[in-house]
Write a structure and sequence with these properties.
512 residues; alpha+beta; six-stranded antiparallel beta barrel; 26% strand
């Protein structure tokens, strides 16, 4: 039979002791409405603030939380820290739970009295953030955001880069280019065994041009020789000329400008050694000696020095200066091959034939040299180049025989053309033809002009003239040349052969 427990005893059988303290009744003091409005839950929020674990959220019936409006911007700007100021974070780093495994004990908040954010006794002041001045951490260059990239026009003209920076960039680019060029040159110089540096032996002394040399004479004479261009419509011709007077008078050949004399629409242009061009006008012509004078309006032209053709001797050195074949400022050299060579040329454009006693030279003369200068070894003008002796049919070039009008005769005729516009020559008043026989050689009289100088001296048709003055006459051309060497009105002895007899008569020369 089991015993019933005695309420006056404990399970061990000892007498039970009375309880001295009893639980106090649960007392809930009344809630102040002001504190409830500050610390209570917002209206419309039931349960915990974490909506994720609320029953409504688990059931998919979460209610939208109404957030408080943001503080005014003026209050936020006054009481918040500057956005770029390094702040003090009052929480442990992520993963640091502050347990027993921590290596160091966390310092209390008030361990740094200099830090107002940790000092509970720091006063509240309106001003800058109460933070300790600390050196900002260096940013990792790899993590720094890249700025906007500028285009070339923006760099050069957008005024977004300082001029000194641009200048420095240009200098750096030049240095890089120079280094690259030198490197390339060095590599190319060393890269091929067949190439290398050229070392030449230069002459120690320069060219010697003593006074009287061909180069020195040509340098002085060439500026006084011009090229003459004649243009008539689509055609024309060319030749040379020599400036003989500071007023711009140029001596040349008649056959050079004869086209311009016949056609008034022709234009003559003088081209100087420096390339200057000037229009030329015809002053006068003498077809019988193939001479002419033109004039240009040029200030202070270079004038040639005039010599004496009578002082020349066979073998003297001469230079021919002109524009052969249109090649301006051409100089050729040679010697005097013969003097007083009678030359007769047919007339140009239906004009009278020309006759003159020429200077023969082997200095190369070609078409275009006509009217150019023939100078001696001192550079003095001794003749006007006028014609050449061709080598036969189809050979119009130079074969080493050229002719020039003696300057003594050319100056006398040019002076008359400049002063009077025309010229007159001494004349016998007869026509003659060349003859060669066993008994006589000379110019046979074909007819005598009535009342002329020859008729007055008793010269008759059929007489053969063999000498005029001290000059022997061998051909009719030579007779004309010898007579024209005298002046009008001169009395000259004429030797002639008449029916095997030698006669000498005095003739007073007339005018043609």
């Amino acid at each position: 039979m089991s015993q019933q427990p005695n309420p006056q005893q404990d399970p061990s059988g000892a007498p039970r002791r009375e309880d001295r303290l009893v639980p106090r009744p649960l007392e809930r003091p009344p809630v102040d409405p002001a504190q409830a409005s500050v610390f209570g839950r917002p209206r419309g929020v039931d349960g915990a603030f974490d909506r994720l674990y609320s029953p409504d959220a688990r059931n998919g019936k979460a209610k939208q939380v109404t957030l408080a409006p943001p503080p005014p911007e003026s209050l936020a700007e006054a009481f918040r820290r500057p956005p770029d100021a390094p702040g003090v974070v009052l929480q442990r780093p992520v993963g640091d739970q502050g347990g027993a495994g921590a290596t160091e004990a966390e310092a209390p908040l008030w361990s740094k009295p200099a830090d107002p954010w940790r000092d509970p006794n720091a006063g509240a002041l309106l001003g800058g953030p109460a933070v300790a001045t600390e050196e900002p951490a260096k940013e990792d260059p790899e993590e720094r955001p890249r700025g906007a990239m500028l285009s070339l026009p923006e760099v050069l003209f957008g005024r977004q880069v300082k001029p000194t920076a641009l200048a420095l960039l240009g200098v750096i680019a030049l240095l890089i280019g120079a280094v690259g060029g030198l490197t390339g040159w060095w590599l190319s110089d060393r890269g091929d065994a067949l190439t290398g540096e050229l070392n030449i032996a230069e002459a120690e002394a320069g060219k010697e041009r003593p006074p009287g040399s061909v180069a020195e004479v040509a340098q002085r004479v060439a500026p006084a020789v011009v090229s003459l261009e004649i243009r008539i419509g689509e055609g024309g011709g060319s030749g040379s000329g020599v400036v003989i007077d500071p007023q711009g008078y140029i001596l040349t050949n008649d056959h050079v400008v004869s086209m311009a004399v016949k056609d008034q629409s022709a234009k003559i242009t003088a081209v100087f050694i420096n390339g200057a061009r000037s229009e030329a006008k015809v002053v006068g012509t003498d077809p019988k000696t193939d001479l002419a004078v033109v004039k240009v309006n040029v200030p202070d032209p270079v004038v040639v020095q005039v010599g004496k053709s009578a002082d020349l001797a066979v073998g003297d050195s001469v230079l021919a200066v002109g524009s052969p074949l249109g090649l301006e400022n051409t100089v050729t050299s040679g010697i005097v091959s013969a003097l007083n060579r009678p030359i007769g040329m047919p007339g140009e454009n239906g004009g009278p034939p020309s006759n003159y006693g020429a200077i023969q030279t082997d200095a190369p003369i070609n078409p275009g040299n006509s009217g150019g200068a023939l100078v001696d070894s001192t550079g003095a003008l001794v003749g006007i180049n006028t014609s050449i002796l061709g080598g036969g049919e189809g050979q119009g070039g130079n074969i080493g025989i050229g002719f020039a009008i003696p300057i003594d005769q050319a100056i006398r005729i040019s002076r008359s053309l400049i002063e009077q516009g025309s010229v007159k020559h001494a004349d016998l008043g007869l026509n003659a033809a060349s003859v060669a026989a066993n008994t006589s050689e000379g110019a046979q009289v074909q007819n005598v002009a009535p009342g002329g100088p020859a008729a007055g001296a008793g010269i008759a048709e059929g007489d053969v003239i063999t000498k005029v003055g001290d000059r022997i006459v061998r051909t009719a051309t030579e007779l004309t040349v010898v007579v024209r060497e005298h002046n009008i009105g001169d009395v000259v002895p004429v030797q002639l052969s008449r029916q095997g007899r030698q006669l000498v008569v005095d003739v007073t020369l007339g005018s043609d």
